[in-house]
């Protein structure tokens, strides 16, 4: 069918009129859709989630939980045991994730059982926090008005935040669950603050509480500190008030201290594991001559056999990583400055690892996991394809090189530099704040992969790089919102 110009205009006006007459706002519509999509997946029987790939034990042990039966790998487990007596490991490693698990355990004891724990209580806590994060993010993207373009933005955001690659984390003990949820709050509060000409103190408090909680989820989230500091520049922006400088100094100091605490609040075993895998699944993995690498740190050549090995090997290991012999003759022979020097002297090999990181950045589902319970004809490690359009498209079609990520980040920042200049010219606070917000998100995209390689090697790339995927996609959503709302080319006075 061929439309005339007048017909197209009439059709557009008709859609606009329909959008304006709809009583449900774009934010509410997005929250309702996410509630239905995620709720069916994680709360109704048979439940879905992510199975244990070996990381559950330390979270379970410190939160008074244990496996009731011998768990078959690749299946989601719904029921766990609750310890009745003294647990010497209780909250030994206190994090935000542990606080959330303890809340779920308390609700379980109150409404269900004192001896058995149903993972759906944890899923329900995550679910409630998640819906709040969705509301904050979408509200920040679209504002108050029920315009057609705002429904489009809300729909695209829903495809992202409701993707099962993220929501399947809810029925699990992985800390990435709270990383994802808190990033929604952090970015959403940053967007909401930017809509006001003067700082809304409560929204600013929400931003900084989200930032502190995010840093305390896991030691790896401390790597997000530089991006968070960039974002905060757009939050504290009252040039005519003397106290703003003192406030900025205080909040920066608090964030830096929280970052330091999170990075160092780990057990000696975890510290040893990170150091070991930084070499075996990092520097040694990047070379065809691991013996030569070992020599540079006065490590016996026999340890070249450790190339690619995990600290907790699932198959034959040439040497046991935890033994005193290995620690004295291998792990204690190198340090972080040596690793950095090795990578700077061999940039090509480091680039190989960066490209490997890029290939895993948008592979959002953790490896060696299943998503379903053991029943019927479900196979171990089987993964559901339910509501996974975003993760499938990203994994299949997004370019998988680190250089492309850097070029994309540079291109987006060029757009926002022009937006910043226009914001300064027109005294448009929203444009200025969006510049710092996007700069913070893209700095995470560019800087976290190389730092992750140096500190952790390629171990658990998918889980370590989840914040990178969320930040890159969120930057794209903000750009989409700014383009559709003509914010980058004309002053938008809407709050």
TrEMBL record:
It comes from the Bacteria. Signal peptide: none annotated. The chain crosses the membrane at residues 21-43, 124-142, 148-170, 177-196, 202-231, 243-263, 402-423, 435-455, 461-480. Keywords: Membrane, Transmembrane, Transmembrane helix. This is Membrane protein.
């Amino acid at each position: 069918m061929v439309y005339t110009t007048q017909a197209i205009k009439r059709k557009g006006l008709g859609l606009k009129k329909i959008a304006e007459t709809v009583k449900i706002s774009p934010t509410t519509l997005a929250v309702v859709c996410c509630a239905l999509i995620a709720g069916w997946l994680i709360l109704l029987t048979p439940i879905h989630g992510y199975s244990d790939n070996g990381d559950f034990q330390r979270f379970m042990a410190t939160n008074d939980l244990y496996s009731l039966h011998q768990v078959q790998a690749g299946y989601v487990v719904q029921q766990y045991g609750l310890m009745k007596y003294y647990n010497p490991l209780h909250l030994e490693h206190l994090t935000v994730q542990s606080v959330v698990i303890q809340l779920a355990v308390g609700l379980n004891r109150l409404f269900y059982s004192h001896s058995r724990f149903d993972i759906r209580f944890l899923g329900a806590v995550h679910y409630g926090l998640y819906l709040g994060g969705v509301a904050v993010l979408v509200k920040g993207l679209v504002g108050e008005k029920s315009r057609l373009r705002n429904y489009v933005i809300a729909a695209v955001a829903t495809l992202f935040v409701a993707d099962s690659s993220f929501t399947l984390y809810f029925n699990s003990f992985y800390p990435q669950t709270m990383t994802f949820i808190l990033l929604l709050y952090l970015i959403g509060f940053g967007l909401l603050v930017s809509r006001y000409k003067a700082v809304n103190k409560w929204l600013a408090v929400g931003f900084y509480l989200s930032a502190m909680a995010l840093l305390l989820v896991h030691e790896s989230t401390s790597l997000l500190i530089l991006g968070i500091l960039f974002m905060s520049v757009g939050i504290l922006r009252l040039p005519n008030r003397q106290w703003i400088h003192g406030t900025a100094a205080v909040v920066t100091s608090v964030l830096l201290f929280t970052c330091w605490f999170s990075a160092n609040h780990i057990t000696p075993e975890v510290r040893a594991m990170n150091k070991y895998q930084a070499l075996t699944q990092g520097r040694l993995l990047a070379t065809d001559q691991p013996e030569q690498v070992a020599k540079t740190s006065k490590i016996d050549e026999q340890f070249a056999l450790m190339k690619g090995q995990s600290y907790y090997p699932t198959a034959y290991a040439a040497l046991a990583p935890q033994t005193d012999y290995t620690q004295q003759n291998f792990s204690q022979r190198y340090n972080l400055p040596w690793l950095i020097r090795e990578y700077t002297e061999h940039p090509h090999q480091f680039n190989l690892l960066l490209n490997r990181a890029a290939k895993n950045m948008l592979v959002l589902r953790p490896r060696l996991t299943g998503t379903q319970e053991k029943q019927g004809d479900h196979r171990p490690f089987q993964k559901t394809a339910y509501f996974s359009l975003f993760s499938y498209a990203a994994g299949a079609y997004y370019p998988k090189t680190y250089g492309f990520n850097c070029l994309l980040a540079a291109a987006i920042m060029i757009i926002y530099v022009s937006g910043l200049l226009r914001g300064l010219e027109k005294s448009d606070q929203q444009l200025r704040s969006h510049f710092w917000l996007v700069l913070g998100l893209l700095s995470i995209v560019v800087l976290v992969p190389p730092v992750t390689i140096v500190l952790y090697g390629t171990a658990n790339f998918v889980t370590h790089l989840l914040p990178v995927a969320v930040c890159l996609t969120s930057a794209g959503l903000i750009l989409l919102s700014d383009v559709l709302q003509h914010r980058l080319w004309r002053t938008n006075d809407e709050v």
